[in-house]
Specification:
single chain, alpha+beta, three-stranded antiparallel sheet, 3 helices, 3 strands, elongated
């Protein structure tokens, strides 16, 4: 399994407060957005919003990879179940072993993608939840100038 993501565009629109990130992947370009919290207008920067949008793009990518892997897995399992019911089924056959290996690989990929989705989602939630303390720190620094 190979995860291929590269940020190709990152933009923050000061008027709308919308951050947009485009990532290039093996599936094509994926776009995600993050919206400025109304309380943060005074300290808005493109960094946080673009970071959130990039995480969202990564989550979109991983979800799409899960969907594709499940789509590929379904017919392989169906073929394997049909073959294993035949009287001439031979588990030691090289074709059977290749089929089993591909099924295990796809199942493993799905688990990894789902773990990555969970990790990115938690990281995004943690970053959003820590916003209050970051805002307070920035306001304190601005007040000390």
């Amino acid at each position: 399994m190979k995860i291929q993501m590269k940020t190709v565009k990152s933009d923050y629109n000061e008027e709308t407060g919308i951050s947009t990130v485009v990532i290039a992947t093996d599936l094509g370009e994926i776009t995600a957005h993050a919206f400025l919290h109304p309380d943060d207008k005074d300290i808005a920067s493109n960094f946080a919003g673009c970071r959130y949008a990039e995480m969202r793009a990564g989550i979109k990518y991983m979800k799409e990879k899960v969907k594709i892997s499940k789509y590929q897995l379904k017919p392989l399992k169906r073929i394997y179940n049909v073959l294993s019911q035949k009287k001439y089924y031979n588990r030691d056959n090289s074709g059977t072993k290749m089929l089993e290996k591909e099924i295990y690989k796809l199942e493993d990929d799905i688990k990894i993608y789902k773990t990555n989705i969970q990790t990115l989602t938690e990281r995004l939630q943690k970053a959003v939840n820590s916003r209050d303390s970051i805002v307070r720190n920035m306001m304190n620094k601005q007040g000390n100038k």
